[in-house]
Amino acid sequence: MPDRATIDMESWVCPAPLRGVPNIVMGHGGGGAMTGELIEHLFLPAFGPAADSQLSDSAVLAVGEVRLAFSTDSFVVKPTTFPGGTIGDLAVNGTVNDLAMSGAAPLAMSTAFILEEGFRLDELAPIAEAMGAAASAAGVKLVTGDTKVVDMGHGDGVYLNTSGIGVLDRHTDIRPQRASVGDAVIVSGDIGEHGIAVMSCRDGLEFATAVTSDTAPLHGLVAAMLGTGVDLHALRDPTRGGVAAALNEIARTAGVGIELVERALPIPAAVRDACGLLGLDPLYVANEGKLLAVVPADDADQILEAMRDHPLGAQATVIGHCVADHPGMLVTRTALGGTRVVDLPIGEQLPRIC
């Protein structure tokens, strides 16, 4: 790692609060612009030629005649148990989904527990059990792992780190660079549920209607989509930063504009109400069991039929298209006929939701 004195922070182009700030802040872990700037201006230069340039959720590696997907993730959700799930099943499903977004069938995972001294064993056991049950349901083996303990007061009970390996068909080529003008943008179901579910059990928050996390493994849904034979251009699971962050990434990477139809966005009433109460935009709220698909417009109906035949895609719908206008930008067409820019979030509206 280079000495801080050798890093020219004045050359950074990120909007505040990154410029001139010498310390890590919560926004650096939010999956938005601050995360991207940290990777681009600190990690990649520090890693040098050892760094891979693709920067995808899962790397695709060729090992002889076999193509593998490899992914790693860390989970620091607070609280560790929330409506619809725990940090344990969230970790398994999140890793499975990162692999699935490249079209891979997940095979095996590692599990690392970072435990705080004093954390109760009767709280840890259900988390571990949920992790095992989720792995069994996804058909994934937990094959290696690690356990560390930090001093009391230096953690929030338990953090999890996972890595996953999956295998891809040699003809599968799913990546954001392939999004093209004219492509349809599809979401597999209602958005915003996970982030609001986690917020609903934070201190001082209470919603009139219960919202349950959508955490789920998506590889079966992706397999159904691949089974149609349609050339899937790009897939993303809109986790940190929500639909807005995922589609901004695709637009910028592919150099296309993406235009959403506001009326087509599947936002449950309970999520909309909670976001209104908290002053949040549902497009930025995290999901853990939904995917975004960018596919040729002529094949959208075929993909929708396959998705709707799967339990996790029953509410799949087209929410927009890739366009030639405003390349690299995401906009929504409002009910009044206007448009608004949906920019990449700087940090994270809802910290510690995954």
UniProtKB/TrEMBL annotation:
GO terms for biological process: protein maturation. Residues 181-326 form the PurM-like C-terminal domain. Residues 57-167 form the PurM-like N-terminal domain. CDD domains: HypE (cd02197). Transmembrane segments: none annotated. It comes from the Bacteria. SUPFAM superfamilies: PurM C-terminal domain-like, PurM N-terminal domain-like. NCBIfam families: hypE. Belongs to the HypE family. This is Hydrogenase expression/formation protein HypE. The lineage of its organism: Bacteria, Bacillati, Actinomycetota, Actinomycetes, Mycobacteriales.
